[in-house]
Amino acid sequence: MKLFPTVSTLVTAPSTIQKLAIRLLGTAPASKTPLRLVTGDHCTLCVHFKKQLDFYLEKSNRIAEFDIAEVDIKSDESLKETFKYDIPVLLSNDKVVLKHRFSSILFERFLPPKPSES
């Protein structure tokens, strides 16, 4: 009696791998939430904001949930007009999540609930 599937069974049956991943992770893999971080050249606040965001996502084990794109404010005229004096700005679907300084408390209000671990 085999307790574990053989390697060839795992390789040839993607549904087995998906079921195993769901069992180990507790949920099916979800799509990443797109975020845009609007920054500028020589912006020390932007550097600190990005470091704090990265640190928070790694520490809270949520880095895989987001697809973060860093955008230079000069690359888009509408961003430049809208956020001229407000960088850094973190956007989700063109809505402001955070600006100026990173706050884990405010960012957590934006986050969807973390899947429960069992």
The count of DSSP E runs of length 2 or more, i.e. the number of strands, is 4
| CATH class annotation of the domain at 33-110 | Alpha Beta
Q: Could you list the spans in which at least 5 consecutive residues all have pLDDT below 50? A: 1-14
Write down the secondary-structure element order. Answer: HHEHEHEEH
Radius of gyration: 20 Å
**Helix fraction bin:** 25-40%
**Order of strands, widest sheet:** 2-1-3-4
CATH superfamily of the domain at 33-110: Glutaredoxin
Terminal CA distance reads 28 Å
- The structural class is alpha+beta
Largest β sheet strand count, sense and barrel closure: 4 strands, mixed
CATH topology of the domain at 33-110: Glutaredoxin
CATH architecture of the domain at 33-110: 3-Layer(aba) Sandwich
In short:
This protein has 118 residues and is of the alpha+beta class. 40% of the residues lie in helices and 19% in strands. The radius of gyration is 20 Å and the shape is globular.
